Amino acid sequence: MKDNIISSPIVPNISLKLEISIYFYYTSGAIVLAIFLHLPTLHQNAKKYIQDLHMPLRIPGLPNNFTADDYPYELDSESDEFKIMLESVKTMTKSVAIIVNTFDAIEGKALEPLNKRMIIPNGTTPTMFSIGPLITSSYGGDENGCLRWLDLQPSKSFVFLSFGSMVRFPKAQLKEIALGLEKSKQRFLWIVRSELDLEDLSPEEFLKRTKENGMVVRNWAPQGAILSHDSTDGFVTHYGWNSVLQAVRGGVPMVAGPLYAEQSLNKVILVEEMKVALELNKSKDGFVSGIELGGQIKELMDSCKGNESKQMIFKTKISSKEARDQNGSLFLI
């Protein structure tokens, strides 16, 4: 969220003096933006602290069962961070428009009340421009040989595992991922961001046993290029928004468990509303077992439910291309 917040009220004051229009670019999706813009209303109407409201929060465009517990950031009404968020909303409402990296086919329910200016009662909601899906371009070469390896795989044959640039799993979780991959009996490409030696990915001799149908790479791979490759048929991810949009652009269904930030809200869209992803069940401490991971990968790759997700994500891929062509042309005007 902090990347999306401009907390200083100085910006609109300066822009008014210089007669410069303000446009905010919001890097997360519309569902998070809707909640963010509605925070002052929740704060004003709440009879007790927002974080203590364990009941549905009626926010236009959001699921009816959404509560403060589902919000991905701290809602302590007395905290300095929360006060900065309120000030940030006030600053955003003074802008001419807010630019959002999303499109109707993936977040239509959240975009409709934003476009109809229903989010801020008796207030001013800026014009919304949906310009997605915009995704980070792949950079660097193929120093790890990922793409060369993919070129040797059959069409729609393997699952890709990557959990963003910030996640560092403990050794116990890495072992369970390795166990799950073996149990799934699927081809795989796994990006491991860890200081551990790859040889420590027990079960014993995991790398040797899976070398014919799997590849494990440390730290980095060209994710966008991998997700758009013809061999890719599934994506195990954390629901980060850029990763989600890359998967949609590539037409790749997902298996995922949210880890932090707005990812739990992204899960609602992809699993419950769009049916393009399967959810990983976690223990109370956030741990995913190898049995759970292997079972969900196998279901995605080889089951009726998985096929349904593949059909839905293919339709969304077509819609994303149409949105990109249309919105890109509109935005350039």
From TrEMBL:
Keywords: Membrane, Transferase, Transmembrane, Transmembrane helix. One of its GO terms (molecular function) is UDP-glucosyltransferase activity. The keyword RNA-binding does not apply. It comes from the Eukaryota. Gene3D superfamilies: Glycogen Phosphorylase B. The chain crosses the membrane at residues 20-39. Belongs to the UDP-glycosyltransferase family. This is Uncharacterized protein.
